[in-house]
Amino acid sequence: MHVAFLGTPEAAVPTLRALVEAGHDVDIVITRPDRRRGRGSELSASPVKVAAQSLGLRVAHRLGDLGSVSVDRGVVVAYGALIPAAVLERTPMLNVHFSLLPRWRGAAPVERAILAGDAETGVSVMTLEVELDTGPVHLERRVTIEEKTLTELLDELSVVGAKALVEVLASTSLLASASPQSGDVVYAAKLTKEDFHLTPSTMREQLLRTVRLGRAFTFVHGRRLLVEAAARSSEVDVDVGQVTRRGNDVLLGAVGGTVALLRVRPEGKGSMDAHAWWAGARLDERSTMWG
């Protein structure tokens, strides 16, 4: 089958590679333009662009370039922009969406599933429509969330999604028999910086879910501290808002229980063990507060 592929982040790469390995002709790859990243602000290609170039595929950054190829289907995985109706009328598209639709339509379905404490999520291979994530579903695959980090869950979902997409393309019955979405519609709004801010007024379990997203931060003595890994602690006499050390454990007092810091990244420094950070910071075990 001749296909066009639209995608941008690392999570989209397994599907692109799976299409090629399954023998489909990927005539064009559309991805978001190179962005400036890092301290040097050098232009950096998207993971999909890097993968496509390594596979010898044609890469473009404008949706208008789809008009230069004749394909049977478009495949969309986390492209990062809405596809106009005129494009969809010319090129029917399948979308690999990382949620069990209609729960978590939108920009951050995996993050929202983790934050909500969902027991499971999954992949929905659907027909793409102009409206956001409303299309009928050809195939659904479920994945348990457990205590997985965002990175771990995205890695798993990207592989599951790649296999599901190839399965749909290989089956005339699956392609022809999509089912309308049913159930309660829940939207996965894009996260803001404040969504990652850990504060003492938040319940412990919610703090731990936020840490699993990978960008959680708090403030200790006015200095920003990234929290890269944390766990539940059985300590019960740490006041809410207090940060202290008990033995080798660095603890945060939170609503509903105590959190043990495992790995942190202080402002202007690299990642380190929480105990090493505490030793270097020379904080007062009785009166230091966080938030």
Describe it for me?
This protein is of the alpha/beta class. It has helices at 13-21, 47-54, 85-90, 109-115, 150-169, 172-176, 204-211, 274-281; strands spanning 2-7, 25-30, 35-37, 42-44, 59-60, 73-77, 93-97, 103-106, 120-127, 137-144, 186-188, 217-220, 223-233, 243-246, 249-254, 257-266, 272-273. Strands 5-2-1-6-7-9-10 form a 7-stranded mixed beta sheet. Strands 12, 13, 14, 15, 16 and 17 form a 6-stranded antiparallel beta sheet that branches. It is elongated and about 70 Å long.
Structure, briefly:
The protein is an alpha/beta fold and 291 residues long. The chain contains eight helices and 17 strands.
Which keywords apply here?
Rossmann fold, 17 strands, single chain, 24% helix, seven-stranded mixed β-sheet, 31% strand, 291 residues, elongated, 2 domains, six-stranded antiparallel β-sheet, Methionyl-tRNA Fmet Formyltransferase, Chain A, domain 2, alpha/beta
Shape: elongated
Oligomer: single chain
CATH superfamily of the largest domain, please?
Formyl transferase, N-terminal domain
**Average pLDDT value?**
95
The unreliable regions are none
Record field, number of beta strands? 17
- The CATH architecture of the largest domain: 3-Layer(aba) Sandwich
Q: Helical region count?
A: 8
List the secondary-structure elements in sequence, H or E. Answer: EHEEEHEEHEEHEEHHEHEEEEEEH
Number of domains: 2
Strand adjacency order, main sheet: 5-2-1-6-7-9-10
